[in-house]
Amino acid sequence: MKQLASVFLLLAFLSPVSAAEDATIGYVDMQKVLEQSKMGKEANETLKEKYSPSQQELAEEEQAIRQLQQKTGRDAALMSQEELDKRTAEIQKRLRQLQEKAMTTQQEFTKDQTELGNKIIKPAQEIIAALAMEKKLSAVFERSQSGLLYIQDSLNLTDEVIKRLDAGSGK
User: Fold this and answer.
1) Phi/psi at 85 (5° precision)
2) How would you label 121-157 residue by residue, b for 16+ Cβ within 10 Å and e otherwise?
3) Which has the closest alpha carbon to 113: 34, 37, 18, 166?
4) What is the pLDDT of residues 132-150, one digit of tens each?
5) How many angstroms separate the first and last alpha carbons of the chain?
6) For the chain, which end, N or C, has fewer CB atoms within 10 Å of the first or last residue's CB respectively?
7) In the chain, pLDDT over 70 holds for what percent of residues?
8) What are the b/e assignments for 82-114, b being 16+ CB within 10 Å?
């Protein structure tokens, strides 16, 4: 009897641990979620509506400055040094103003983009957590930032996250 117990104990130590659950993983492409979900599309449309006029205005001013530079280049031989200096100073002033406005617009755009993105990421994270629990996953990675060089497409949860996010369901 003692020998039998010793054999079972020895077998228990030598056999692989089969009682432990296999680690399973999944991944989500959050950029795709941000771009293709209804909320993401609405956020992009909001940004487009808000910043398209500014982009157009900046492009027009840039074109006007280029034309002024070209005209100055063509007319430089006919202009006095004083006129040339005045025109060059005007071009430099307009370029500085354009750069400042472009930088300010970009900062505002980035701020708004981050705020709108965060409104999508929070519910998406809740959905991802629910999916992970349902599928009994040990870990879920963000595809583009995980450092994974290869992962099976069957482990992709992105489309399901988008589907649930669009449905407004966190479960």
Assistant:
1) -65, -40
2) bebbeebbeebbeeeebeebbebeeeeeeeeeeebbb
3) 34
4) 999 999 999 998 887 777 8
5) 53
6) N
7) 85
8) eeeeebeeeeeebeeebeeeeeeeeeeeeeebe
